[in-house]
Every structure is written in C-alpha cells, then in structure tokens.
Amino acid sequence: MTFVQDVLDGRRSIDDYENFKTAWEEFPPEDEEFHNAVGMLWAENIMWYREPEVLPYVVAARRQGQNLLQYVTERKDADLTAWRLWDLAQRRFQKEWLNPDVDLNMPTGEEPEPVHRTRPIGENFIQDVLDGQATSEDFEDYVTEWHNTAGSVPLHEWLGLLWPEYAIASTDEKALDYIIAARRRGQNLLEHLKETVDRTALEVWAETVKYAEQWRTPERSPSPKAYWG
Fold first, then answer.
1. Domain range annotation of the chain
2. pLDDT in tens, 160-179
3. What was the pLDDT predicted at 150?
4. pTM of the full predicted structure?
5. pLDDT (0 to 100) of residue 149
6. What is the 3-state secondary structure (H, E, C) of the chain?
C-alpha cells in the first residue's frame, strides 16, 4: 500500500507525509524505491523535487484515474497552479514524461539540472520564458545582469514588462506567474486579472489597483529614478 493510496482511502492525510518519509527512511525496503512507496510515477517524483504542489495534485489526479500530466493538462486554463505544473512538465521534464514509469536513476533528493539558455541573457526576460529559454526563477538573474552591464534601456523594458507590471512584480513575487500567463494570451497583467478568479489573483489585483494612475499609460515609467541607479 502506498502513501497516496492511503490518502485516497482516508487512512492518512497529505500532512502525514513527513512522518511517512521518516518511517520509510528508518526501515527502507531493499527492493523498493521511495517514489514507488509514495505512489508516484518517476516523472511525478522528479517534478516534486522542484515543486511541492505536485503531491496534492497527484492525489487529486488519482481520484480521477489520471497521472499528474493528464490532470493538469485538463485544468491548466482555469487553474494557475495547474498551468505552472503543466508548463514545468513541458519545459524541463519532457524526457521523463515520454516514459513516466522509468526511473532515470537520479539519486533521491538531487535537484534537476537547470535550463541551459541557447541565447544570451537579457534580450527580453518575458520572451525568453515564453520561448522556453528561461523560467520565472531566473528573474533576479536578469535584474542582476542589467545592473552589471549598466543597461542602456530601462529595466522594465529589459525584462519585457510594462512599468506597472514591473512595480508590482518587484513587491509581490506571485505577480510574475500571472504576467507570464497573461503574455501567453496576448494580454497585459491588468487584462488577465480581470478574467481570472482565484484567491491569489485577488491578492495580486489588490496590488495592481495601487498603480491605477500608471495603468493609464503603462508603457511610461513615472520617473527615471525608479529604474536608474
């Protein structure tokens, strides 16, 4: 019996995971890999190292008789977390999902290899993300590169953001995923949030309305001091 099956059957909750892991590590079976004991495919397991939301989504997928990729593919247009997991599977773990049951012998706990860009950093952060050359995790690297090279264009343009989008993303890291999702639909952040109903979107919206004046001319920064320094 696996951990996921125990959750499905009501014998455990997701919150019991750490106790389950501790018990397994104390007496690990000789012929069983940990992801099998949890009840995950190898592809699900390797994504779990990167994204903790994988476990509850695997449980939800099993309730529908699906694997994680099947489940998030059906829900990615209405659920931001599902979209993030789907995007992660498509960009970083395509090889694993070709044979999701196959253990690629990566030691437990080892972090996956980072994305290797095929073009130089800084052409446009958002476009690089859309093209699969970067991820939202690379945001600070692009900001650092701009400062290191004394960027000749405003920072928000270097990143591919409108000024109010940059202002919001700088103070609320959750906004970045919504900006990326907006660009995939050919929208800006404000347009996307008007069509998105979830708790996190409402939190980001609360930050967005603080910049009502800037949204009237979103391409224009209010002051050079905001990005030069």
1. 3-98, 125-226
2. 888 888 888 887 888 889 99
3. 53
4. 0.50
5. 66
6. CCHHHHHHCCCCCHHHHHHHHHHHHHCCCCCCCHHHHHCCCHHHHHHHCCCCCHHHHHHHHHHCCCCHHHHHHHHCCCCHHHHHHHHHHHHHCHHHHHCCCCCCCCCCCCCCCCCCCCCCCCCCHHHHHHCCCCCHHHHHHHHHHHHHCCCCCCHHHHHCCCHHHHHHHHHCCHHHHHHHHHHHCCCCHHHHHHCCCCHHHHHHHHHHHHHCCHHHCCCCCCCHHHCCC
